[in-house]
Amino acid sequence: MMLPKNFVPLDPDMTKNKYPSEHRPETILTDETGTINLMFQYMEGEVSDATIENFRSQIFGMMKRVNPGIKEREIGSVDVLGKKIAYVEFSNPAMDGKLYNLMFYLAVKGQPLMGSFNCRTKEMKYWRPVAFEMIQSIETVETIE
């Protein structure tokens, strides 16, 4: 996946402050301001290209029930090099204002991989196209065992 060159792993102390839950994503990348974030997390379950959209819808449905402040923007999927990537765009209130979120899901060796991009909604106009370009650049390496 192509990333902006100024994205770096989020500092461990900042990670604990920003994502206090022990269930925080495994990989969190951020820009120099700490306000533009990209995260990755393998999730439980089995999925395929054929079931990834349903998986996304189930997860997002649970998120909306837990956080009624979520405002859905768009739900869809894209085909990248023959791999289906399901996504959902939404905004939600946060401590420092509203956040724009683009969560995306793909099957990697039968396991769901979730990616999540977020920034302040006031920066969405610039970052939304960049986030979709990053998704379009995803390549998976799946070995035959």
Number of helices: 3
CATH superfamily of the domain at 44-136: Mog1/PsbP, alpha/beta/alpha sandwich
Major sheet description = 7 strands, antiparallel
Major sheet: arrangement of strands: 1-2-3-7-6-5-4
Mean pLDDT: 92
CATH T-level fold name of the domain at 44-136: Protein Transport Mog1p, Chain A
N- and C-termini, Cα separation = 24 Å
Q: What value does the Rg take, in angstroms? A: 15 Å
Number of strands: 7
Report the β-strand fraction as a percent range.
35-45%
The chain-level structural class is alpha+beta
N-to-C series of helices and strands: EHEEHEEEEH
User: What is the highest CATH level, the class of the domain at 44-136?
Assistant: Alpha Beta
Shape estimate: globular
Helix proportion range = 10-25%
CATH architectural type of the domain at 44-136: 3-Layer(aba) Sandwich
Which segments are poorly predicted (pLDDT under 50) over 5 or more consecutive residues? none
